Amino acid sequence: MPVEFRKDIFSEERDDNLNEIGQPTQRQDALGHVTGRSPYYDDHLFDNLHHMRCKRSPHHHARIRSIDISAAERMPGVRRILLGKDVPNNLNTLLSLLDFGIDDEPLIADKKVSYIGEPVAAVIAETDRQARDAVAKIRVDWEVLPHVLDVEEAVRSDAPTVNDVYPDNVFVYHGSYDHQKLRYGDVDAAFAQADHVVEGRYQMSPIEQAPTETCGAIAAPETNDRFVCYTSTQALFFSLGTAAKLLNVQSNRLHFIGGTVGGGFGGKVDSLHEPMAILGCMVTGKPCKFMFDREEEMQVGAPRGAERWYVKDGVMNDGRIVARKFTGYFDSGAYTRLSSYAIIKCVGHLPGPYTIPNVYADVYCVFTNRTPATAMRGFGITGVDFAIEAHMDKVAETVGIDPVELRILNAYRDGDMKAHRRLAKNTALIECCQVAAEKSGWRISDQARQASSLRDGGGDRAQLPPHTVTDQNGRVEGFEGTGYAGGNKGGMPSPMEQYQTIPATPAAQPAPQPSQTAAPANRPAAQPSQPPASSVPPPPPPATSPDADQLRDRTRHSRRFSSISGLRRR
Amino acid sequence: MTKKPVQFQLNGDQKATFVDDGQNLLDVLRRGVGDLTPKFGCAQGTCGTCTVLIDGQPHMSCLTLAETVEGKSVTTTAGLENGAELHPLQKAFMEQFAAQCGYCTPGMLMAAKALLDTNPNPTREEVVEAISGNICRCTGYEAIINAILSVAGNSPQRYGVR
Ligand code: FES
Ligand code: FES
Predict the structure, then answer these.
(1) Sign of dihedral through CA atoms A118, A124, A128, A129?
(2) CB contact, 8 Å: B90 with chain A?
(3) Taking all residues of chain B, what is their mean pLDDT, rounded to a whole number?
(4) Which of A262, A440, A474, A569 could be joined to B103 by an S-S link, Cβ 3.0–4.6 Å?
(5) Residues of A in contact with B40 (CB under 8 A)
(6) pLDDT for A15
(7) What is the pTM of this model?
(8) Is B31 within 8 Å of A45 when comparing Cβ atoms?
């Protein structure tokens, strides 16, 4: 198929000349791939390589009364069996490296398990076979607990607590709210005036990334009292920091080598293999490999989490959507991992690529007794986009308008104000719809065909709503604020702060409590001192609420960040 | 555990090694004789990334008992190059973007070679059939099929290959 370019679209806006795109370009790693010489982590040979296998929970939720490893220890080839108490700092949350969230997940569970497959012991043996045989000899005395697998059941007050750090089964944002919220305009007033109100419920299942290469790592002693670690990670420095924290070692004692990944798709961001392999290497002095087999990859490997969405639209007879309200539940599984962050991305994306003057969202990161969820392509966005686009079709049907034209009618245009208070820029949904309609022979009206993202945006559409309804729904007490979104360290606004131009309820937000978190009782008593990320002093109270003019001004003159990190070049 | 001596040809070289009872060929190739080109993807015969040729026939080495290759000839991706020159299949995969992460590539190449060695002029359907036991998760099937067809006897243009 010849590649077709639409450089004509927005040609006067482009400042590039696309020297590479459209030309065949040799990938720098292709030669390694076709000769089989690309060095994946498992392609590093070590004499006397030891193998690690985990004893895993057969229950959704159970307390560990005791673990008997005596028979397993006597099995041939077994060098060591690791339990939770052998992990120097056995509690972590991946995003603690960004000072976001409370440590809530042990590397090896020692008190209770909260999902099927959670590791409770790790055998290190001379061969993989021996490690597996020994795992089969480990006896665990379980006290099976009631479990919850559905997000809405999990948030009911009678649900069993999945994760002791968050007793209500919901992640707490910035120490203040049990959900991530978006308030823009007044949806209820708009619903009252709309010609139609269209409601829908949407459910996405978890999806396993299923890379062809399973996740894993090999660690070996190196000179200078260091450990080298070959890993399949997609996030090398993230994994390095996580391993250093869990193992309570200086990160300069860890020499990480990665970069050749046999497919990841997000599933290789969670760093559990590196600390396990390095710990195995530390306690045995031998090179040690910890690698998922295919079954573990499918069952224990963190998937894209499930999501449930309720979407409610207020629509006029001519197809204009005047209000959109979301209630969303991300199924984080038993631990936080990256779901809380996925929701921040998600809420920044709402209400999808449409200019809607009144938007409301409450999105919950819910703990259930399922496999912890993590990143996958477009995470935070893909699931809700499914809900939004399915809902757009439903709206089109209700109002009796062509679904493509409905999208063109409501699409963002350049200069429009988005619900997260940024002006839309480089929008192209209208043109995408037009090309898709043309290619598929879908007939749209002349008016829709002549619409343009470059025209008719801005003006009134650039204005913030005259009035935004705020509330204290979901306000919680007793959690520490974290510096990620609210803090301002050393004068530099954090990326999140720039991103969240306005806190949802700036005036009403009191200073974060420098009090205890709700969690301390659940933390291991003899915890080594917290690593720097968690010991940052509580952030200063937010500045007084900026008034509306100031806000508008800030928004207008804000830099045109289009990514969360604010780094993407215009 | 008893060890058994096994002798076989690997990419034209004579190899002799000891294998454990029940050890699979993938393990012996990678750990025993140090040919790392066949990859581990599942050890269940479902992904095909461990595919090698045994006497010219494609086999999943993870499901092949190592001792059964006694006296046979095994070909892996390491045996495709001719000196410094790439095999036409390797060249085609490289130039036509038929590898993304590259993890399935050695298996794909061996499945393709097995096909072209016996059927130099396959149809598109025959190519699809030949690689049907090989999973590519980076969704490169179109490019892979086109790359294989481009080195087959058929005119590449017929298939719209650049
Ligand atoms: S590793 Fe042999 S088929 Fe997957
Ligand atoms: S290129 Fe990644 S699995 Fe095929």
Answers:
(1) negative
(2) yes
(3) 92
(4) A262
(5) 42, 213-214
(6) 66
(7) 0.85
(8) yes
